[in-house]
Design goal:
The complex is a heterodimer. By secondary structure, chain A is mostly helical. Chain A is 72% helix and 3% strand. The chains are: A mainly alpha, B mainly alpha.
Chain lengths: 617, 101
């Protein structure tokens, strides 16, 4: 039974795809009488099948070191052979388990969350498309097909963020999400195309083998590597391509669960797979680290200054993706994958808890919340679990992943980066403590006076996800992913723990114990605004790229309208003008015609007798 | 007395005829200019027949024909002018421009 399941692991992306197709009949335009709910149930079923399949296949593969490869022919033209390589190994199937399980939880969550919504068919179809796309991405072992899937997911993001398209902010958010990710994808495509003549393969394994012995022009490989990084940069919402994730928070919350935890990590997956290639160029590695470090620092600071609960989390997503960038740049791909796993579970828990708050508090403004602890214990515990699992707080998962990152950085003598990670951890802990404090502690406010725990459909996935976050260390031990305690760098572990505790304590003191009347006044107004408005990134975009492209397109439009069109129109106009003018030659007077004839005859006579006339003079 | 002079006079006469034909506003004067041109032709014919073909004098016969045809053409021309005059009440050439652009 299990070997068959392992060998047919390429079927995993097809279940949700089937689910996506099956939801279509329940669009409001097709089946009107039953309502949209069957669409959701069908999808939960297909997701569950995909989850079971990937879990069984994962168990079958666990402990075996050799991955299995399958090849699906796609296109063969001239010298180009586009075969889809599928890699079934413990890692890829583990990623499938993570994706399908989180999607299962998010879909069950959505049954409760979207109870008052009619757009289930569209929503579930797109969630299933995402699930299928991500499973296919982790299973496929080719840079080219990864690029294709990333593009499909970009389109999926556009449609999913734009679910409620009658809201103007949703429309602009979906637009920005699509364009920003598209820019990165296009630069990635350049690199994908440029690397083929060098390596003659797009297969990740063969690329890694090629990278071991490759002797290429350092400038060339640096440029290619930076372009390869640009794709994940936009996918993972890294500076300066991070605004889209902020604006994507306008979309439906259940999709945010998936987006914040897993979708943004698709970029990291590709980056990890490309790590051998990127390590060919030290400049590109440094670039990766720089982007990651700047994003991690900037985004955690921004997150600490947000008042929108979803945006607090979205900037933390950017920040943790930044940490993964640092890990890849510092040649620690395993750490990046471990961090992705712990981060995904913790972030899913956080977003679910956050949705549970939003669902009946209605506002997303944390400054209007407060005093929910006594009435929302499960949500509060889930959110705290998620927060503790995200930052480096032992014994939860995030601690081990961050510790592995910090020790690796320390071992490779990157003290500055260790400081960066510790500061990021500190600010993230503060930001999460601030969020929890603002929501659950203090006095109730008008918006939170009557706020019960929501429907079990929201609480159950949140609790399960929180449970997994709590049990993650045990799972990691079982999988043998945790380091032996004797080998752990105790100093780093202490530093990390202290940074988390200090951050969380500061947040607690300020926002739970209220040692200061108004903590927002501790920071100067300009700095506060700078962080709250995301370093004024929208203005930055608008005054540079958007302005430039807008100007250029207007100039091109003008050129087309007046110069190119004008040139062609001028020919027509000249003909019309010529006809209109020359018609006055037909004066209607007989004598004028006679004159013309006389002139014509005289002229022809002179021309014909020219040689004789010339002889005369 | 040479052939050239006769030809030059005839050409000059023809040119005067063309000038009159083009510039006159009175239809009758246009017809008269045509007569001038025909006479210039006749002069040519006579000169050539005198100097080049004194025995056969074929040019003179042509000239006789031209004179007769000129008379016929003048008759028809005047008739046309009369019929136009009866309709338009004028013989001004500038008024007959129904076909202008």
């Amino acid at each position: 039974m299990t070997p068959i399941l392992a060998q047919t692991s390429w079927l995993i992306p097809l279940y949700p795809l089937l689910g996506a197709l099956l939801t279509v009949p329940w669009s409001p335009a097709v089946i009107r009488r039953t309502g949209p709910r069957p669409a959701g149930y069908v999808n939960i079923l297909t997701t569950f099948i995909a989850f079971t399949h990937s879990l069984l296949a994962f168990i079958a593969f666990w402990g075996k070191s050799s991955p299995q490869f399958f090849f699906a022919p796609w296109l063969h033209v001239a010298n180009l052979d586009l075969t889809i390589p599928i890699e079934a190994s413990a890692i890829t199937l583990g990623a499938c388990v993570l994706i399908t399980s989180l999607n299962l939880l998010a879909q069950v969550y959505a049954v409760g969350y979207l109870e008052m919504d009619w757009g289930w068919a569209r929503f579930y179809a797109l969630m299933a498309l995402f699930e299928a796309g991500m499973c296919a991405l982790v299973l496929c072992n080719s840079l080219f097909f990864s690029y294709m899937l990333l593009e499909i997911l970009t389109l999926g993001t556009y449609l999913l963020v734009g679910l409620w398209y009658n809201q103007s902010l949703v429309v602009t958010g979906a637009r920005d999400a699509f364009l920003t990710k598209r820019v990165g994808d296009l630069v990635l495509l350049m690199a994908v195309l440029a690397i083929y003549p060098l390596s003659n393969t797009w297969d990740f394994r063969e690329l890694a083998v090629w990278a071991q012995t490759a002797a290429v022009d350092p400038t060339l490989i640096t440029v290619i590597c930076i372009a390869l990084i640009a794709g994940p940069m936009s996918k993972c919402a890294q500076f300066p391509l991070h605004l889209w994730l902020d604006e994507a928070m306008e979309g439906a919350l259940p999709s945010t669960i998936l987006r914040n935890s897993v979708v943004v990590a698709t970029g990291i997956w590709v980056l990890v797979k490309l790590e051998p290639v990127i390590s060919l160029s030290s400049t590109a590695s440094a670039f990766t680290i720089a982007v990651g470090a700047v994003t991690a620092l900037g985004a955690t600071l921004i997150s600490a200054a947000q008042i929108d609960i979803k945006r607090i989390l979205s900037y933390l997503s950017s920040a943790y993706m930044g940490l993964m960038f640092i890990a890849v740049g510092a040649h620690q791909p395993e750490t990046a994958l471990l961090l992705t796993l712990t981060y995904a579970l913790a972030m899913a828990t956080l977003v679910m808890a956050c949705g549970s708050v939003i669902q009946n508090v209605i506002t997303q403004d944390v400054t209007q919340m407060g005093g929910l602890w006594s009435r929302r214990p499960i949500t509060a515990l889930a959110m705290m679990t998620g927060a503790a699992g995200l930052i480096g707080l032992p014994p939860l998962g995030g601690f081990w992943a961050t510790l592995s990152l910090v020790s690796g950085l320390w071992d490779s003598h990157r003290g500055l980066l260790v400081a960066v990670v510790l500061i990021v951890n500190w600010v993230a802990a503060f930001s999460l403590a601030r969020m929890v404090g603002l929501i659950f502690a203090g006095q109730t406010q008008q918006m939170t006076v009557r706020a019960p725990e929501p429907l079990w459909l929201l609480v159950m996935p949140m609790a399960i996800s929180g449970g997994f976050t709590l049990h993650l260390p045990l799972i990691l031990i079982q999988l043998g992913l945790l380091p032996v305690w004797a080998e752990v760098s105790k100093d780093m572990a202490l530093l990390l723990t202290w940074s988390s505790i200090l951050g969380a304590t500061l947040g607690t003191l300020l926002y739970v114990n209220r040692v200061v009347e108004n903590p927002a006044k501790l920071v100067q107004k300009p700095v506060q605004n700078l962080l709250a408005y995301d370093f004024y990134t929208p203005k930055l975009y608008r005054s540079t790229f958007v302005f430039g492209v807008d100007l250029l397109s207007k100039a091109a439009d003008w050129l087309d309208r007046y110069v190119v069109d004008g040139l062609v129109n001028a020919v027509g106009l000249a003909s019309i003008f010529g006809g209109e003018t020359l018609k006055y030659g037909n004066t209607g007077r007989l004598q004028f015609y006679a004159l013309t004839i006389a002139f014509g005859v005289a002229l022809l006579g002179v021309l014909m007798s020219w040689q004789y006339l010339a002889a005369l003079f | 007395m040479q052939l050239d002079y006769f030809l030059l006079v005839a050409a000059a006469l023809f040119c005067i005829g063309v000038y009159g034909l083009v510039t006159s506003r009175n239809v009758i004067r246009v017809l008269m200019s045509i007569e001038l041109m025909l006479n210039a032709v006749n002069l040519n014919l006579m000169a050539f027949s005198n100097y080049l073909d004194p025995v056969g004098v074929k040019g003179q016969v042509f000239a006789v024909f031209v004179i007769s045809i000129a008379a016929a053409e003048a008759a028809v021309g005047l008739a046309i002018v009369l019929s136009i005059y009866r309709n338009r009440d004028t013989v001004d050439m500038e008024q007959f421009n129904l076909l202008k652009w």
